[in-house]
């Protein structure tokens, strides 16, 4: 909070309308957080049934943070389910938080860009895909910036503001201003695989999962990491992030000859993705 205050206020106009595409773990929680902080948010998902649980999580967040019924209601009113994606044409900022797959993201961008209003910014919450890999799909790659939130959104202060070789300074500044607007700490970084945090975090998680393959129980590894001072152990964190997402990020960042953790592969193949599917390295129900 002190570091955020030290950054000062931005002179740029605030984002009034945010459109979020993907109502999963990240998109749903980014939408909820932005609405908590006063932004009108439309929330879209290819699978409409993903929207209601996201709105339910938002209500839990508002109940915890706002307490007063009229404030909770106002935040709920600002968070609008939008199956048809009509918010795209009205939004000042669009954040995609769909599946971590460059081809799928490109397809989405090609549909979204022509509907965006002039001056609106397009952001990707990708964890690992360099923005340059998404340029093909866009007529104007200059409007693309990375806004990489961390999980769980309500607790993690940091947002990486990712600059591609085509991102102009005013778009970087707008990304930073938006993070500050919603009380998050912007960390500008260049668009390279894994940006800053995941470049360091992914090998750490991978090594921990290789230790599981070697027969060390997840509980032992997590307890050691917590004794060391980590708020959460690496195996628990992998389950929280989602093993499907972790898998996709690992593939994107893998160096030639990298060893894939066997247990991770078996869990992903069995659609046991961690907390969100009730089971991963741990049981969550
Ligand atoms: P998730 O699987 O929980 O949610 C993805 C959502 O996107 C699903 O609801 C799915 O139905 C929807 N979707 C897929 N294709 C779509 C399309 N074409 N149009 C609209 N909706 C579509 O995944 P997540 O964990 O929220 O991750 C989303 C993105 O955020 C990924 O790029 C991921 O790398 C990134 N990210 C994830 C984490 C994490 O800890 N899970 C952290 C930071 C960033």
UniProtKB/TrEMBL annotation:
Residues 194-284 form the 3-hydroxyacyl-CoA dehydrogenase C-terminal domain. Residues 19-190 form the 3-hydroxyacyl-CoA dehydrogenase NAD binding domain. It comes from the Bacteria. In the central section; belongs to the 3-hydroxyacyl-CoA dehydrogenase family. In the N-terminal section; belongs to the enoyl-CoA hydratase/isomerase family. This is enoyl-CoA hydratase. The lineage of its organism: Bacteria, Pseudomonadati, Pseudomonadota, Betaproteobacteria, Nitrosomonadales. The gene is fadJ. The chain holds residues 289 to 573 of 672 of the full protein.
């Amino acid at each position: 909070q002190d570091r955020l205050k030290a950054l000062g206020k931005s002179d740029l106009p605030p984002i009034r309308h945010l459109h979020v595409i993907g109502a999963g773990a990240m998109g749903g929680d980014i939408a909820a957080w932005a609405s908590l902080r006063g932004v009108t948010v439309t929330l879209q998902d290819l699978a409409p049934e993903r929207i209601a649980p996201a709105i339910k999580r938002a209500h839990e967040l508002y109940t915890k943070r706002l307490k007063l019924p009229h404030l909770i209601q106002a935040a709920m009113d600002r968070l609008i389910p939008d199956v048809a994606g009509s918010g795209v044409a009205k939004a000042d900022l669009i954040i995609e938080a769909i599946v971590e797959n460059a081809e799928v993201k490109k397809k989405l961008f090609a549909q979204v860009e022509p509907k965006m209003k002039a001056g609106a910014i397009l952001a990707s919450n990708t964890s690992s895909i360099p923005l340059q890999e998404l340029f093909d799909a866009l007529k104007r790659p200059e409007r693309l910036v990375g806004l990489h939130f961390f999980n769980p959104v309500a607790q993690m202060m940091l947002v990486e503001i990712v600059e591609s070789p085509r991102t102009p300074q005013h778009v970087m500044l707008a990304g930073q201003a938006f993070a500050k607007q919603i009380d998050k700490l912007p960390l500008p970084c260049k668009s390279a695989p894994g940006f800053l945090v995941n470049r360091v975090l992914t090998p750490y998680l991978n090594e921990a999962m290789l230790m599981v393959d070697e027969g060390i129980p997840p509980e032992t590894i997590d307890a050691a990491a917590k004794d060391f001072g980590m708020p959460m152990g690496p195996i628990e964190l992998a389950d929280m992030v989602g093993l499907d997402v972790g898998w996709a990020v690992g593939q994107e960042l893998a160096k030639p000859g990298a060893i894939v953790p066997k247990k991770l592969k078996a869990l992903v193949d069995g659609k046991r993705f961690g907390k969100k599917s009730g089971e991963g390295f741990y049981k969550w129900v």
